[in-house]
Amino acid sequence: MSATDAGPAAGGGRPRYVFLGPEGTFTEAALRQVPGVDGARCEPVGSVITALGRVRDGSADFAVVPIENSVEGGVTATLDDIAGGDPLQIRREILVPISFVLVGRRDMELSAVRSVATHSHGWAQVRNWAAAHIPQAEFIPASSTAAGARGLLDPETGYDAAVCAPLVAAQTGLPVLASAIEDTAGAVTRFVLVSRPGTLPAPTGSDKTTVVVPLPDDHPGALMDILEQFAARGINLSRIESRPTGAGLGSYFFSIDLEGHLAEERVSAALAALYRIIPQIRFLGSYPRADHRRYVVRPDVTDEAYRTGQRWVQGLLGRADAS
Prior knowledge:
Blueprint: E1 16-20, H1 26-31, E2 41-45, H2 48-56, E3 62-69, E4 73-74, H3 76-83, E5 89-97, E6 101-104, E7 115-118, H4 120-124, H5 127-133, E8 138-141, H6 145-151, E9 161-164, H7 166-172, E10 176-179, E11 188-195, E12 207-214, H8 222-231, E13 237-244, E14 252-259, H9 265-277, E15 282-288, H10 303-322
Parallel strand pairs: 1-2, 1-3, 7-8, 7-9
Antiparallel strand pairs: 3-4, 3-11, 5-11, 6-9, 6-10, 12-14, 12-15, 13-14
């Protein structure tokens, strides 16, 4: 399913996408992988919250935002914002390999760098390199890696260098002081395409489902009450993260990715059971995995196994009616 199959564009005409900008971010690289994006209206915005807010208020049809990094873990701004407010739906995931360069001002040597701007997730992925090569440099938070680099084009900006994607260096013409500075080779960031709730893509056999499950009260076994619904049905969790709700200490929700699609009996049964326990559960979508890796379903929790069990029970109920 292409993104444009999800529903009508805001205001009619071409679908409108927003992404964490400015131009040249890894998020834009993720956006360019979305089928059907060519010819669409694409606009960079300053934050994840702004991007998701534009989808909620209807001024954009889709947002592409980062949700997880293989080194640094979950992107908290996305996890927190998508868990509350008006409901949203994840329609697909996109994986982008991550590599960084250090760019600086004209005629600057690496040894002269005293301050470096970038996004906090970018800095987390190069801090060991920075400690070894520019230990004197102070980290300056930026709204994105591209924003930090583009700030160097302003002579009034108060920092010396920036960590960004090689594409941004090429776009801006800023001198590259060092290349491939990431601490972990092969790092990947996972992005999601988000819209207002609509139809679900058909199951492919290589799918993920994302849910947000609030912890209703803090008691022994509270997390086990949630996990056993998945374990009993042979569902693997590919990601689970706890986040504070903001309502006070001890108040948390769990952001969960699980293998499978809502259309599968085992997945729908697990979520129905969770809903009975925690009606505040939020379904964020079932969508194809970006890596296309197929999962193995235990024979006792296949759709056919569920149907066989249901037929057996119906047969028993029929005997009861006959008596």
